[in-house]
Write a structure and sequence with these properties.
The complex is a heterotetramer of chains A (299), B (327), C (496) and D (336).
Chain A (H helix, E strand, L loop, with lengths): L11 E6 L5 H17 L2 E6 L4 H14 L3 E4 L8 H9 L4 E4 L16 E4 L2 H15 L5 E6 L5 H17 L3 E7 L4 H14 L5 E4 L2 H13 L9 E6 L2 H8 L5 E4 L5 H12 L7 E3 L4 E3 L3 H4 L5
Chain C lengths: L2 E10 L2 E11 L4 E6 L5 H8 L7 E6 L2 E2 L5 H7 L1 E4 L11 H6 L5 E2 L2 E2 L1 H14 L15 H13 L5 E5 L7 H16 L3 E5 L3 H7 L2 E6 L2 E7 L5 H9 L20 E10 L3 E9 L3 E6 L5 H9 L6 E6 L2 E3 L4 H6 L2 E4 L3 H5 L6 H6 L7 E2 L2 E2 L1 H15 L15 H13 L5 E5 L7 H16 L3 E5 L3 H7 L2 E6 L2 E7 L5 H9 L4
Parallel strand pairs in C: 3-10, 3-11, 6-9, 9-10, 15-22, 15-23, 18-21, 21-22
Antiparallel strand pairs in C: 1-2, 1-4, 4-5, 7-8, 11-12, 13-14, 13-16, 16-17, 19-20, 23-24
Chain D lengths: L16 H11 L1 H16 L6 H26 L7 H16 L9 H28 L5 H20 L4 E2 L3 H8 L1 E2 L2 E2 H19 L1 H11 L1 H6 L4 H27 L1 E2 L8 H11 L11 H20 L4 H24 L1
Antiparallel strand pairs in D: 1-4, 2-3
Classes of the chains: A alpha/beta (299), B mainly alpha (327), C alpha/beta (496), D mainly alpha (336).
The complex binds adenosine-5'-triphosphate (2 copies) and magnesium ion (2 copies).
Organism (chain D): Shinella yambaruensis
Pfam family, one (chain D): BPD_transp_2
Keywords (chain D): Cell membrane, Membrane, Transmembrane, Transmembrane helix
Chain lengths: 299, 327, 496, 336
């Protein structure tokens, strides 16, 4: 069973972040810190710099420091299992944020408390579904993948590709990694647009690459939104603004503001409530129809 | 001087640097012990050793490579690839995983040796290329994602279990270091490695089999990286094709902080271990410092502090060596 | 016959270094291999030991055809070699260097104690008692040369090759070496001895092979080859007599240009005072390790001077860097050309003008025309044997490299030229040329400080000689008092 | 291309015309590799022969070339500079902060933009100077000396921006990456000018020759009066400043500065370009034209793999093979 959590006035909580090299992660970290500060808790924050192995070591050092709860944003599904198990053994409840761990090896409600976050496969599927409805005859897709081997890249590709295949009539002419980065995304888009001038849809696995792709389109003398539809995931302010401007056609939100919900869940557990095994964020969807209205709320 | 004291005699500026790194290591441990609760708890010590044994292994191989005047940038990629191979083979038998991973590392090492000695391409470039190739191969055979190891074949024992109260990976690293020390100090081939680092052409003229020795050194480095990959897979239950980024720089820094010159020709196995532990300790200290809550260090400050720490260590070392030289 | 090399040819980048050269050596004989700088002696040796591959020719060793692909194989077959540029691992200890690749072992592990004992024992036979645990780099060129010799003679080889082994040794060391060679001979070992000092060759060698321009031009028993004939074979012409360099004995005292007063640094240079006068060649003599090289480095600003004063033309000067000394018109041709002299990958042109560069510039840009002019002039004046001025200097023979380095400093038109072992590795023809050149430059006003281990050379060329012993200047002998006996007794001053 | 400073000795007329042709062809090893890549692309890659393709490749290669030029100088002295990527991030973070008025109120935009060009490059140059100081004053080995800023430098950039992305639009500033001079993209012009100046410096100036001498034999250089320390300080400073400049180009091109990512991995690209271009990492040589060709080869390989849909994992392997091959050809060429 998941270790119990005493009810106390203040807690020492650990937050094991996986990396902080993109705006999304930074927003997530800030949200966690802000909430901990608001509640007056002591936060032990670690950054694994993109290494699953280091993240396990980080969790171990939290255990050594005797934290009450561990919030873990696991970098990967499988390698973080030892961290979850070590915490369980040490009597510390773990709450997973934004990515989960391998369900065949660790179970919510048993080995860790719960998972809070979005479903990356679902994000890819949602954007694909929008495309199927709104393609207007466009059909040749360039896909800008996230960092090779990372789970959001794999899942966002899986969800999208499967849905597109099922719908039929579309062709993914090229799919290459842009490392979730604007500059790399732009360079890759520039090259792919040269090799495939007939492409009329670009699907980027995050906002940064989408912005890069828009720059590439403009440099190639094409009009994003008209000649080429740009689709993205994350839904940060800059991207939603781009939807308003008509440069991005649609974007699925993947909200990084985990702080309030994470700490609320923890307190509910301390009070003795049973926690559902999975808490899915309700992520918004922006397209021309709602972007202007929602812009102010975008993160 | 009494023969018993001979090993501790300070004869060269390298010895001084080695003394320096030991002092720094003890200083840092003392700092941690005084400042943080539970810093010297067995939990922290054991998990520290379990995790960092991977880096220690890689640093050992790197030490040998650097002593020859070379460099091996491929170790991180090799470890990542080896972890995938080990994970894929682990369902058969734990030994299949262990040997398979080491063989994968060995293969990259052999390739490095070939490119460097037969194609005569500089180690920096040769191993830069094999680093890319190792990552590529790892991703290909892993199909771009982490590969679960078998939890039934006993493979995870290697990385996760203890023996006589100490983590098995730490035992492995210890054994490797003892072996490494023996080779470097007590076997002719160790002397040859040092002489080659002193000057390849000269070593050849003195009748040493330079190419063969160099190839062996890269092979050893690759194999140790493969072993680190096996531990990676076993300890974390997965082969990870994207792990290992920056490990080579960590290893190089460990070796250099251990008083070994990148120009080759001198170096010490023991000091390399101390160097690796010292640099790893910085991460551990930073984690504890964050826990104090006095200052909440962002990840950014952490890298600034790590850089500054490295700076302080190498500058101090340089000063010590300069003073020794002028004395 | 022990060794027979026949019809060996070798070309580097299309330029022939050896043209069908041959060499034969019998067991237990000492074979002299002589020839001008660049004649191909070292190349022939390197082909024999597998450093280079030959283009043509055959080699038989001990009755069998051999084709060594690397020095390790030649060593394994019983050939020990001391190469021209001393080859030792500088950071390894003396003992390790002597035993590298055949370490004494106990239970499979290196027996460090045995190695130390062995090394001390063999060095003792060379009258050298040094700390064999110290890295070779801590010792000067002469000691290193002795270590290399010790390494070679303890290899139990059938053939020992020595490429200019005496170029950095003083007479006492040479005597020790010769004793060693005789011992080897008695044990049936053959020796190939390459050298430029004729007296030495006649003293130790049984037969001689003479090379010129990559070819073997003469072979004969040493006794049947008069000196003059040998030189004629070597040069392909008669040698202008090796004398008349010496200056006039009662020339008037000239003003002091460079004065060193009680200079010292560390333990190597304790207290050195000497004068270098305008238009004179001043000699600096001393035993191996007496601190001559270190003194030169102090004067030149290469090492930090801790005590004493240097005066140029009467004014006290401090040189923190060589650049300061150079700016004052001082030049230094260093002793070890491989470490302190050449920039191996740079061309002859660049190497020759390196010190001159700052003065060859117009608005920061090198004046190529002047550079060319200077380079051509010195290549001709010193007879540098090269394919073109654009050839990398590392491709030149040892002696020719030395000439380029000399030209490097002459080109700066210095007022004081310090020159450490000026004729090391230089053939007899070029040697008298260089000494004559120094003389004539002195006559034009240049002040030369010449460090030399060859007393004969000092006697022939110097106007006065300062003798160092254990880092201290113990005597200054004017021309009229100069004699071999006087020098030797001064050098022995504190040692005995 | 062969090295500039030491043209190999002219074969003395004994070679047949055929073998001379071969020598010539193999001497320009990198160039041959480059041509082979072009031929391959013309045959295989769709729409390769177009102005836009040339444009894309030239603009993309510009930053690598700029950084690799500085790297060539550092490597020529026998050093190496791992900090270039981090310095790009620092310069890239600094520039927008200046013209967006985060330090002080911007009153005159033209002035602010001029400052946004100048200040970051100067700061990066000073950081380079810091590298040089570590190398010369403290005799710290270059890899480690520059590893300090490799680790800390990006952290400094992130601390400056708090890790946040800075998005901007500023025509004046972005001219460096978006503008055109006589129809040629500004960054390409910039690259050409830098390469030409550096080439001339290496070949014709005293400091250029001294850089080579320091790398070729430091002891000998010092004994011939070369101001070794000053020469080294100079090259690290230039490398830093050029990295800063490249950082400006990147952020200007993206209309955004992301301290986390600007210049990430640039040190390896630059070093690979230098090596593929035939400059030995051991120092004593500087082949600027080779470096440019090396960068072109790396860029073309990247483009080829992308445009032909080679998956990332396989692309890594191909890239590795091509680097080894290119350096191998280049070295054989050097020997003949
Ligand atoms: N690696 C090389 N590359 C090109 N040319 C070379 C090389 N080694 C030697 N040579 C050339 O071969 C010729 C013979 O050189 P070698 O070193 O054998 O002369 P040597 O007789 O030993 O002269 P010294 O008495 O000066 O040592 C010279 O002209 C030299 O320039
Ligand atoms: N035979 C020796 N035994 C011990 N130390 C020696 C010996 N030879 C040289 N050294 C070391 O070298 C130092 C002096 O070297 P230096 O090069 O200044 O002398 P030198 O007179 O120029 O010799 P060389 O004849 O090689 O030119 C000595 O103080 C000593 O440390
Ligand atoms: Mg020779
Ligand atoms: Mg001397």
């Amino acid at each position: 069973q998941v270790p119990k959590l005493e009810q106390k006035d203040t807690y020492k909580v650990g937050f094991a972040q996986t990396e902080s090299n993109n705006p999304w992660r930074i927003a997530q970290t800030n949200s966690m810190k802000a909430e901990a500060e608001k509640l007056g808790y002591q936060l032990v924050y670690t950054d694994a710099a993109g290494s699953a192995a280091k993240q396990v070591a980080d969790v171990n050092s939290m255990i050594a420091q005797g934290v009450d709860v561990i919030f873990l944003a696991p970098r990967e599904e499988k390698p973080l299992i030892p961290a979850v198990m070590a915490a369980k053994k040490a009597g510390i409840p773990v709450i997973l944020l934004d990515r989960s761990v391998d369900p065949s090896l660790a179970k919510a409600g048993e080995d860790y408390l719960t998972f809070i976050g979005s479903n990356f496969v679902e994000e890819g599927r949602r954007i694909a579904e929008w495309l199927v409805k709104n393609a207007n005859g466009k059909s040749k897709i360039i896909e800008l993948e996230g960092t090779t081997g990372s789970s959001p890249a794999n899942d966002r590709k899986k969800g999208f590709d499967e849905a597109i295949q099922a719908a039929g009539g579309f062709e993914i002419v090229a799919s290459q990694t842009g490392d979730f980065a604007r500059d790399k995304g732009r360079q890759v888009a520039e090259a792919l647009l040269q090799a495939h001038p007939d492409a009329d849809i670009i699907y980027a696995h995050n906002d940064e690459m989408a912005m890069g792709a828009i720059a590439a389109l403009e440099a190639a003398g094409k009009v994003p939104g008209k000649d080429v539809l740009v689709l993205s995931i994350d839904g940060g302010k800059e991207a939603v603004q781009a939807v308003v401007d008509g440069k991005i056609a649609a974007v699925v939100e993947c909200n990084p503001r985990f702080g309030p919900k994470a700490f609320e869940t923890m307190l509910r557990y301390a009070k003795g409530e049973t926690i559902e095994p999975m808490i899915i964020n309700d992520d918004k969807f922006y397209d021309a129809s709602n972007a202007a209205a929602e812009l102010a709320d975008a993160y | 001087m009494h023969t018993l004291l001979r090993p501790f005699a300070i004869k060269s500026s390298g010895d001084i640097a080695r003394l320096g790194v030991l002092l720094a290591l003890f200083g840092l441990i003392l700092f941690g012990a005084l400042r943080y609760d539970n810093f010297l708890s067995s939990y922290n010590i054991l998990s520290f050793l379990r995790y960092n044994s991977m880096f220690a292994l890689i640093a050992l191989g790197m030490a040998f490579v650097i002593i020859t005047g070379g460099i091996d940038l491929s170790v991180g990629g090799t470890a990542a690839m080896a972890s995938v191979v080990a994970a894929l083979l682990s369902p058969w038998h734990w030994a299949a995983g262990l040997l398979g991973g080491m063989a994968a590392g060995c293969a990259v090492g052999a390739l490095n040796g070939f490119i460097i000695t037969k194609m005569r391409i500089q180690p920096f470039i040769a191993t830069l290329a094999t680093m890319l190739a190792a990552y590529g191969t790892g991703l290909l055979i892993a199909n771009n994602q982490s590969v679960s190891v078998s939890y039934d074949s006993g493979f995870t024992v290697i990385g996760q279990d203890d023996f006589l109260g100490f983590p098995i990976p730490a035992w492995i690293a210890l054994a490797a270091y003892i072996l490494g020390w023996l080779v470097l100090e007590k076997l002719p081939v160790g002397r040859h490695v040092l002489a080659i680092g002193d000057g390849e052409a000269t070593a050849g003229l003195m009748g040493l089999k330079v190419e063969r020795t160099l190839a062996a050194v890269y092979l050893a480095s690759g194999t140790l990286a493969g072993l680190a990959g096996v531990i990676l897979a076993s300890q974390f239950g997965a082969g990870q094709p994207t792990e290992g980024v920056g490990w080579e720089l960590f290893a190089i820094a460990s070796v250099v902080v251990g008083g070994t010159l990148l120009t080759g020709g001198s170096g010490s196995v023991g000091a390399t271990l101390a160097g690796a532990l010292l640099l790893a300790m910085v991460f551990n200290i930073l984690n504890f410092e964050n826990g104090l809550g006095w200052i909440s260090l962002s990840a950014y400050w952490q890298s600034v502090i790590r850089g500054a720490f490295l700076l302080v260590v190498v500058v101090l070392q340089a000063k010590l060596m300069a003073r020794h030289r002028s004395a | 016959m022990l060794l027979s090399m026949q019809g060996v040819s070798k070309a580097f980048a299309g330029v022939a270094a050896l043209k069908s050269a041959s060499l034969e050596v019998e067991p237990a004989e000492v074979m002299a291999l002589v020839g001008q700088n660049g004649a191909g002696k070292s190349t022939l040796i390197k082909i024999l030991t597998g450093v280079y591959r030959r283009d043509e020719g055959s080699i038989a060793f001990d009755g069998r055809e051999v084709d060594f692909s690397m020095p390790a194989e030649a060593q394994g077959a019983g050939i020990a070699t001391i190469y021209q540029e001393i080859n030792l691992a500088p950071q390894r200890s003396v003992a390790e260097n002597i035993y590298l690749s055949r370490e004494p072992k106990r239970f499979g592990l290196i027996d460090h104690a045995a190695m130390r004992r062995g090394a001390e024992a063999v060095l003792k036979t060379f009258n050298l008692s040094i700390d064999v645990d110290r890295p070779v780099a801590h010792f000067d060129a002469a000691t290193r040369q002795m270590v290399a010799i010790a390494r070679a003679v303890t290899q139990k080889a059938r053939l020992v090759i020595m490429d200019e082994p005496t170029s950095s040794l003083d007479e006492r060391e040479v005597a020790v070496l010769f004793e060693t060679i005789r011992t080897l001979k008695r044990a049936g070992v053959a020796v190939i001895f390459i050298g430029h000092r004729l007296d030495e060759l006649y003293a130790i060698c049984d037969r001689v092979t003479i090379m010129r321009d990559g070819q073997t031009v003469a072979k004969s028993p040493m006794a049947d080859m008069p000196k003059m004939a040998l030189v004629r074979h070597m040069l392909g012409k008669e040698l202008a007599a090796f004398q008349a360099i010496a200056p006039d004995e009662d020339a008037p005292e000239r003003p002091v240009r460079l004065a060193v007063e009680n200079a010292g640094a560390g333990v190597r240079v304790r207290d050195v005072s000497l004068d270098v006068r305008e238009g004179e060649i001043s000699g600096l003599a001393g035993l191996l390790g007496s601190g001559r090289t270190e003194t030169a480095r102090l004067i030149f600003g290469a090492d930090k001077m801790q005590r004493g004063t240097i005066r140029m033309d009467g004014r006290a000067r401090t040189y923190r860097e060589p650049a300061d000394a150079i700016a004052d018109g001082i030049g230094l041709v260093s002793e070890d050309r491989k470490i302190d002299g050449i920039v191996p990958d740079m061309s002859i042109r660049e190497n020759m003008t390196l010190a001159l560069l700052p003065r060859l510039k117009k608005a920061g840009i090198v004046d190529r025309a002047r550079q060319d002019e200077i380079v051509t002039r010195y290549i001709r004046a010193l007879g540098v044997k090269c394919a073109s001025p654009d050839q990398p200097i590392r491709e030149l023979s040892g002696g020719n490299q030395q000439k380029v380095l000399l030209a490097r400093w002459l080109a700066t038109d210095p007022r004081v030229l310090i020159i450490d072992e000026p004729t090391r590795g230089i053939d007899i023809g070029a040697k008298s040329e260089i000494l004559k050149l120094l003389r004539s430059l002195a006559d034009e006003g240049l002040s030369v400080l010449m460090i030399s281990s060859e007393l004969e050379e000092l006697l022939a060329a110097a106007d006065r000689v300062t003798v160092l012993s254990d880092g201290t200047s113990v005597a200054t002998l004017p021309r009229k008092d100069l004699s071999e006996a006087a020098l030797l007794s001064a050098m022995a001053h504190q040692v005995e | 291309m062969t090295t500039i400073e030491t043209p190999a000795p002219q074969p003395s007329g004994t070679l047949s015309p055929g073998s001379r042709l071969f020598t010539l062809a193999s001497r320009y090893g990198t160039f041959v590799a480059f041509l082979a890549l072009i031929v391959f692309n013309v045959a295989v890659t769709p729409n390769f022969l177009s102005w836009q393709t040339l444009n894309v490749n030239l603009t993309q290669v510009a930053t690598i070339v700029i950084v690799a030029t500085g790297m060539t100088l550092v490597i020529a002295t026998g050093g190496i500079d791992l900090s270039v990527g981090s310095l790009m991030a620092i310069a890239g973070a600094l520039a927008p902060m200046i013209f967006m008025g985060q330090f002080w109120q911007v009153e005159n935009m033209a002035f602010a933009v001029a400052l946004a060009f100048l200040l970051p490059v100067v700061v990066a140059g000073l950081f380079g100077l810091f590298n040089g100081l570590l190398v010369t004053r403290f005799s710290i080995q270059p890899i480690i000396a520059t590893l300090v800023l490799f680790i800390a430098g990006r952290g400094i950039a992130q601390v400056m921006t708090n890790g946040n992305l800075q998005v901007f639009r500023n025509e004046g500033f972005q001219f460096i990456a978006m503008g055109r001079i006589a129809g040629i993209p500004a960054q390409v012009v910039l690259m050409t000018v830098i390469v030409a100046l550096t080439f001339a410096m290496i070949r014709y100036t005293v400091i250029g020759r001294q850089i080579i001498a320091v790398g070729g034999n430091e002891k000998a250089a010092r004994l011939t009066g070369v101001p070794v320390k000053r020469v080294k300080l100079f090259v690290y400073m230039i490398s830093g400043a050029l990295a800063g400049l490249a950082g400006l180009v990147v952020v200007a091109r993206n209309s955004a500065s992301d301290a986390n990512l600007v210049g990430l991995g640039m040190e390896l690209d630059a070093i690979a370009a230098v090596a593929v271009g035939g400059t030995l990492l051991t120092g004593g040589r500087a082949n600027i034209i080779g470096t440019v060709l090396g960068a072109f080869v790396i860029q073309l390989v990247r483009y080829t793999l992308l445009a032909n849909g080679v998956p990332d994992a396989a692309a890594l392997i191909v890239k590795a093979g091509l680097i080894v091959l290119a350096v191998f050809i280049q070295q054989r060429a050097d020997k003949s």
